[in-house]
Inverse folding.
């Protein structure tokens, strides 16, 4: 999760937006941006994807089977 926090924060700063400005453009509450950048664990995947959409990315749910399959490959 820390990589997500660092990614969002650095990309937001690259485009010179405050957390408030970025939240408004992404269509989410300021608290969503703060939670992401502070590496909070209780994030709503839909809201995270709204934020990541600003950068052309998205997160998808992964099952333990998918993780185990990748580790054995």
């Amino acid at each position: 999760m820390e990589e997500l926090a660092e990614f969002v924060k650095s990309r937001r700063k690259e485009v010179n937006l405050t957390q408030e400005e970025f939240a408004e453009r992404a269509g989410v509450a300021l608290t969503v941006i703060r939670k992401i950048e502070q590496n909070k664990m209780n994030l709503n995947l839909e809201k995270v994807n709204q934020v990541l959409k600003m950068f052309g990315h998205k997160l998808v749910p992964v099952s333990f089977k998918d993780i185990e399959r990748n580790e054995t490959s």
About this structure: Residues 2-14 form the longest helix (13 residues). Residues 22 and 49 are 14 Å apart (CA to CA). The mean pLDDT is 85.
